Amino acid sequence: MKDKKEEFRQKAALLDEADPLKDFRAEFKTSSDLIYFDGNSLGMMPHKSEKAVRKLVSDEWGQRLIRGWNDSWWNMPQRVAARLASLLGASEDEIAVCDSTSVNLFKLVSASLARQKGRKKILSDNLNFPSDLYVIQGIVESLDDGHYLELAETKDGISIHDDELIKRIDENTALVVLTHVSFRSAFMYDMKKVTEWAHNKGALVIWDLSHAAGAVEINLDAAGADMAVGCTYKYLNGGPGSPAFLYVNRNVRNNIISPLWAWLGEKNPFEFSLDYRPGEGASRYMTGSPTIISMSTLEPSLDILLAAGMERLREKSLKLGRFLVEMYEEFLVPLEFRLGSPIDEDLRGSHISICHKEGFRICKALIDSESGRYEIIPDFRPPENIRIGLAPLYNTFFEVYELVNELERIISQGIFEQYDTTSESVT
Prior knowledge:
Elements (H helix, E strand, L loop, with lengths): L1 H17 L15 E3 L10 H18 L3 H6 L2 H13 L6 E3 L3 H15 L5 E5 L4 H14 L4 E5 L9 H5 L6 E7 L11 H10 L3 E5 L18 E4 L14 E4 L43 H4 L2 H11 L1 H23 L5 E2 L11 E5 L3 H9 L7 E3 L1 E3 L3 E5 L7 H16 L15
Helix pairs in contact: 1-13, 4-10, 5-6, 11-13
């Protein structure tokens, strides 16, 4: 067993040395005693983002005050949208950076149902992020017009089979709302294929890209996607509370009318017209003033992603995943761990769930800096998922090696038994 461990340690060292993205780790505020695998919930902070916020608060707001709007703030949403468009395979005028993911989803679901008159079914799946389902349920309740939500069912708790989805898309389907990469299992849909199925039946599709943007290669226009939403604080490293984004394909934009007519969505806000006129492109889906402080962190973060390139990021993500699965099979399977993500990497995003009946207490032991050599931060999702976010900009193969060693030690030595099942407010 020691020989096998040494083989993996040496392999990790070789992979890290050959990693073409290894220098990007220095762009982030890391710590020598912390191993961070929760970038799929909140990305690490780039040094340049910290500098941007300090400059904005002390100089731009502190000294320039209201003049800051004309100096650089007013066009910030467009600058960020242009960077996101490059990452997501879209045109700049198809992306709006604003509000939260749930608010943007509300806009697009409501607008889609208004267009799809006579169709009553909204299709999603039971792997979807609950908040997305809550938004849909609220819209159905408020419209009170016969709409209903139907969920495709997973058979293994990990993925949705193609046949299970296809059989539910019919001529009554107004809208299909799916998460591109599942928050629990990292199961990833084939966006182009699913969109084609929906279009064949006259349905529209909205994709939630929250666990995909910045982690997997996405080409919204090439996939024929209608609409999408997503957050920017996970793999895009925008920081807590950074604004969300939405995408509306220019081919459907004129027929997808936001139910929220507000100041920033107006054609010329500073004419102060009393009658609303929708703005150009995706700007028509904006609402109130841009969240300048939280948005300011995004420009440097997105520049880092663009410099690294999504093709190289995805390539390293897959290598990290392969290395983790290899070590899992060698050392963790005998300890009753199970893989909670697709083994086929073409069906998997950039995080991997490893399941164990003591998953919650194992996570507590990993995080406790007194328990081992490192403070290791994954996160936990019920019922038994230890989610390992593999962020290729800053995670290393040696960190994966150390994670598996700790998981093995925590179980084999019964260290998890020292922890109770009381949870924090956020897990």
